[in-house]
Amino acid sequence: MFDYKLLAALGAVVEQGGFERAAQMLGLSQSAVSQRIKLLETRVGQPVLVRSTPPAPTELGRRLLNHVQQVRLLEGELSELLPSLDEGGLPDRLRIALSADSLATWWAPALADFCAAQALLLDLLLEDQDVGLKRMRAGEVAACLCAVERPVAGARSLPLGRMRYRALASPAFIARHFPDGVTPRRLAQAPAIVFGPDDRLQHRYLAALGQEGGFLHHLCPSSEGFVRLIENGIGWGLVPEIQVREACAAGRLRELLTDRPIDVPLYWHYWRNGGSLLATLTGHLQRRAGEWLLPD
Amino acid sequence: MFDYKLLAALGAVVEQGGFERAAQMLGLSQSAVSQRIKLLETRVGQPVLVRSTPPAPTELGRRLLNHVQQVRLLEGELSELLPSLDEGGLPDRLRIALSADSLATWWAPALADFCAAQALLLDLLLEDQDVGLKRMRAGEVAACLCAVERPVAGARSLPLGRMRYRALASPAFIARHFPDGVTPRRLAQAPAIVFGPDDRLQHRYLAALGQEGGFLHHLCPSSEGFVRLIENGIGWGLVPEIQVREACAAGRLRELLTDRPIDVPLYWHYWRNGGSLLATLTGHLQRRAGEWLLPD
After folding, report:
1. A141: closest CA among A18, A288, A293, A281?
2. Under CATH, domain A163-263 is a member of which superfamily?
3. Contact check, Cβ <8 Å, A104/B224
4. Which residue of A has its CA nearest to B90?
5. Which residue is closest to B100 within chain A, CA to CA?
6. Which run of H or of E encompasses B124?
7. What mean pLDDT do residues B33-39 have?
8. B191 at the A interface (CB within 8 A)?
9. Where are the domains of chain B?
10. What angle, rounded to 10 degrees, do the helices at B59-81 and B275-288 form?
11. How high is the mean pLDDT of chain A?
12. What is the mean pLDDT of residues B169-195?
């Protein structure tokens, strides 16, 4: 069998973003962590870690971490049946990748009861909904919420519903940039706000209006910051309807083109052999997500 | 002089997180970008890029990017004097690193007028306030807002004020975890919420109460998500006072220990020779930050 001490050291260095913190987390010296990584590399015959800042796993390192994640989930399963093997009754942890927009809106109310009832601790990772799956593929997470349907090998995907986005701006921004009304062409000339290089929602919206190509935009990788920039008239952007109901009702935000939403489907990806906690959480989301998301 | 085409290719690969996107951005083929990086490495005699996913600059690569950032700021300065050299009158862009908490609260209202008046586009990067300075050191940003006072070489730092944090939880969470009142010991046993591995605020708060060592916590790298988790009773955590005035007034959130805030100082770091736009922005922040931050 693999030596999981070595693999745990690799996981700690990647998760914690460095050797020093990994050593703290594992309760080891830094040189002990270093030695374990070197020993692992000697055994597998190639590097598992790129020594950048922060260190990144190589392709092989990634596969090993993927494997460790699945073994951990299986162990979680087993330790429920054999409570004496458990390390002191610590709460379970689940590492989950999701989009900032879900986290800023429906995720917390959907999970509230579940976390309390199961004494579950969440390690949340933010990933844009079009690319979150790479965290599953890399074996860094137990589950992932994203816009891509097709599961990675060993995992399943479950449609939870659709998140509706509307193109919004502040009344002052609309008055300044569209004195003669909003047209697709003028919209493509007004500064937009884009979440980050992986966010293509504004591009898709403009393309659907026949406006292909580049456009001026701010970059703002924060869901709340995104809405704040729009409210303050710094740009326009696509925002989840459920995040800004109040701001729209109060007139602080207005839809640019009447009733032209974009819907983004959300899929829950989880390991097939992920253990009963993950299965219970999956069932919980399947039952509850409809309270916030539109039917699929 | 340096060949800035090669350096621009390096910058694009790092900024865009890959060769393919860098090629799109530069309007080149992927192999042309690759060749430029290789040529740069031949000239400087060592690697400038670690070929990880995403690619990361080596120490030397970082220094070169730092240099490019400063040259760009200087060019921006010059192109104002010589508008004919400017590439088609595109708006200026400033790349700025700041904390999610500032972005979720006072940043947008503070910048609103400025962006409109200067036709400025913002590239915002999120970095925890204790570590944001590494983006300055790496030359990836024009300015940085963080909790560290000491500037990097070539830059200045300016105190803008203090952000006040309070330890908050929902009434339901308090009832569940502290039926006999909140004590430091019980607080250290209730699940906290921590922004990420770089966030030591909850640790410092507990340490100030005499509770050293580890504690149970969720990880949630989103400012709005952080507040949502607290409002839904999933954990307790330290939140900027200005972010939750309304939730506290409405009784959705309560301070755990009466009037025990933590203040975090915020410093604005900017390149000394960063050009007049950066200098104007610096003056603007110096005048306006006091509307949201406590005096230093």
Report:
1. A281
2. Periplasmic binding protein-like II (3.40.190.10)
3. yes
4. A216
5. A222
6. strand B120-126
7. 90
8. yes
9. 163-264
10. 90
11. 86
12. 93
